[in-house]
Design brief:
about 130 residues; mainly alpha; N-utilizing Substance Protein B Homolog, Chain A; 7 helices; about 0% strand
């Protein structure tokens, strides 16, 4: 599985977690491809780290939103993309430009037309 596909799986796990507060086992059962064992560690580690740091990540995002935006006003998919990307930026294992580009491309697939600009602006400031 390509990294973008893995990031989409993480985004979907976070989306479900934010909306339903499902437990991790259920999230992973619904979103992991057990035949693709190589992808599982990346998806699981990033999802768990994001959930464990969700309050801190959320505050960092809030601190970098413009005054006219509020985190709760964002769509849940946008929240999930921002949280996932902020956590990946903290890990410092992937170049910032790559993480931002991936977030923008995922937003283009799953969000409205204004979301990529918002996501780009917030992540660039983190």
């Amino acid at each position: 599985m390509k990294r973008r596909e893995m990031r989409v799986r993480i985004m979907k796990c976070l989306y479900q977690y934010i909306l339903t507060n499902k437990d991790l086992d259920q999230l992973f059962e619904e979103n992991l491809d057990m035949d693709d064992r190589d992808s599982i560690p990346f998806i699981v580690e990033n999802t768990i780290e994001t959930i464990n740091n969700i309050d801190e990540l959320r505050q960092e995002i809030v601190d970098n939103l413009t005054e006219t935006w509020d985190f709760d006003r964002l769509g849940v998919i946008e929240q999930a993309i921002l949280l996932m990307s902020a956590q990946e930026l903290k890990r410092k294992e992937t170049d910032k430009a790559v993480i931002i580009n991936e977030a923008i491309e995922i937003a283009k697939l799953y969000c409205d037309e204004d979301a990529p600009k918002l996501i780009n602006g917030v992540l660039d400031r983190l």
